Every structure is written in C-alpha cells, then in structure tokens.
Amino acid sequence: MINKSLLLTYLYLLIYITLSSGVILYNKWVLSPKYFNFPFPITLTMIHMGFSGAVAFFLIRVFKVVSPVKMTFNIYATCVIPISAFFASSLWFGNTAYLHISVAFIQMLKALMPVATFLVAVLCGTDKLRWDVFLNMVLVSVGVVISSYGEIHFNVIGTVYQVTGIFAEALRLVLTQVLLQKKGLSLNPITSLYYIAPCSFIFLFVPWYFLEKPGMEISQIQFNFWIFFSNAVCALLLNFSIFLVIGRTGAVTMRVAGVLKDWILIALSTVVFPESMITGLNIIGYAIALCGVVLYNYLKVKDVRATQLASESIPERIAKDWKLEKKSSDVYRPDSSNVVEGIGTTDFAVDEEAPLIPSSRLSHIGRTQQSSRNA
C-alpha cells in the first residue's frame, strides 16, 4: 500500500524542483538579449517584490487569511530593514548575472554559497572557525575555480555580480539568524512577504532610478503584461512551495533535493539555451565542489544529531513536547547548506529561491522562557 504522506512529500519536492528550475530559466529568457530582450534586472526584481507585497497585503488585510505579527518599530528598523536591504541586493546582483553568464555556470558558482555563509558567520561570531569545515570550504572553492577555468564563455563582470549576490545572500541569512530568531520572531511565508517585499522594493527603487530608468526611456522597451505577470506568479509560488517542502522534510532531504535540482537545471539550460555549452573541465570542477558540499552537509547533520542526543537528557514531559514541534535545528535553513536562492550546500538560489525568512518555531522551553520574561 502506498504511503500517502510519503507520496505527498515527493509531490511537494517535485513541485519545488519544477518551480525553482522554471523561475531561473524564465528569468534568463526574459532578461537575455537573444530572447525576450528585457535587459533590466532591477526592474524585473521590483516587479516580483511589488507583486508579492501586494498579494501578501490582500491576504492579510483584506481576506485575513493570516494575522500580522506584532511588529514594533524597533524590530522593523533594526531587523526587517537591514535584512530587506541584503535580500534586495542579492536578487539584484543575482539577476544581473543572467545578462553576462549562462544558467549552467551560475549554478556552478552557487556551490560557493556554503563558503560565503561560513565566512560571514565566522566574522559575525555566529559560528566558530573549525578546521574540518574550513578544509571543506577550500575544496569547494578549488572546484569552483576549476569549473570557472573550464568555462568557454567566461565573463568577469557576470562572475563578479553572481559572487557578490552570493555574499549578499549569506549576509541576509546570518542577519536573519542573529536579529530575528534571537528575538523569538517567527514569520510565515505570507507575513514575511508582507513585511520584507515592500521594503526591498524601496531599496531597489534607488539604483533603478539612476541605473535603469534612463535606459528604459531611451530604448522604448516592449512590455508584455502576461509575460511579467506569469513570471511574478511563478516566483511567488516558488516561495510558497519552499515553505511547504520545509514543513514536510528535514535538512538532509532538502539538501539532496537541492543537489538534484542543480544537476537537472544545468542539463535543462543546455537544451533551452543551446549557446550555453558545458565542458569536461566544468563538470570536473563542479563535481569536486559538490564533494566539498556533501562533506559539509555530513558535518552539519552530525552537529544536528549531536544536538538531538543532548536533548535526551531533558525531562520526559518536556522532551515529548519538544518532539511534537520540529526543533529549529531540524528545519532546513539555507545558511546551513547550499539555498535560496535559495534553495546552501546546494543552496537555494539567489533569485527568489530562498525563503525570505526561514521558518522558526519556539520549543516548549523557549516559549516558557519567553513568557516568564514577558511576565
């Protein structure tokens, strides 16, 4: 007999992989001068943010699907604004890279996501410098360098944009952990879009006004409503699908799905965009990088299991409560892997792949401590 729950999990994973790959290929097609020819990545990102923010507003304020969280001015100014700034930057730089380099090469560069996240976390003091992890990061970096050397259409500008976007995403992930999670604030996908998307839109407006607005006035670009509407809908659905998958799977499953998605996307991109060629050196370098990523995943999973074992010493009553709710360490977070993006170790890609705010739930102990502090 087929396990319906397992079947539903695989269905969610399939939807996530399909939407994630589709959004990236769609963005490339829209931005590429050889296809739809809309070479304005900031504008495209602003459309996504504006649409997502509007949908979230109607769901919360008009249809009241979910209730807004208690957001103080202090939390908004010190948490939401800086996170939104880095989120907007990661999308801006990541989408701009599509103008200069291929989708396949972009996915290979995204193997650097764990490296960027680890370095930023160490610098911010949220992680310790461990030599086993550091050596994995060196292995990933060497693989990416080899893959870049084998890239036929290597472009310095596109590579710099993509790597900058990766580090901006790493900063966002670490800031989310430091600022929001430590304050015990939990945002679901709708409320995260409600608070962060409009703020990101405003941050993007400044570079758009100076960098793209003059060019749009001169070029008299074509604007197809249905193209941009469907593109924004796909990006929004992808964000929701990530949270559905996170709610039904653990960290390991998400990381494996991310690796599978990257390979599928690399293969698909060579079919959809014939000019995107992959060399043997590309594959060798990417395989080396993935070895480092897999080892990094293994160490992270070991850390999670060690945390679980430590929790066994908690009194039985509390332990039962704790097991009913997924511990935050059991929930996949792009900062501990690839994403998203999106989607760390195979991180969720930068363009609308990573959830705006990783889902975090307070354990029984966390709620008890918080309620005692509030009292």
UniProtKB/TrEMBL annotation:
Region feature Disordered, mapped onto this chain: 352-375
Keyword field: Membrane, Transmembrane, Transmembrane helix
Subcellular location field: Membrane
Record-annotated Sugar phosphate transporter domain positions: 11-297
Bilayer topology annotation: Multi-pass membrane protein
Main localization category: membrane
TM annotation in the entry: 7-26, 38-63, 75-93, 99-121, 133-154, 192-211, 223-245, 279-299
Coiled coil: none
Keyword Transmembrane set for record: yes
One GO term describing the cellular component: membrane
Record's compositionally biased regions (Polar residues): 360-375
PANTHER family reported in the protein's UniProt record: SOLUTE CARRIER FAMILY 35 (PTHR11132)
Name the record gives this protein: Sugar phosphate/phosphate translocator
Organism: Forsythia ovata
Lineage, broadest ranks: Eukaryota, Viridiplantae, Streptophyta, Embryophyta, Tracheophyta
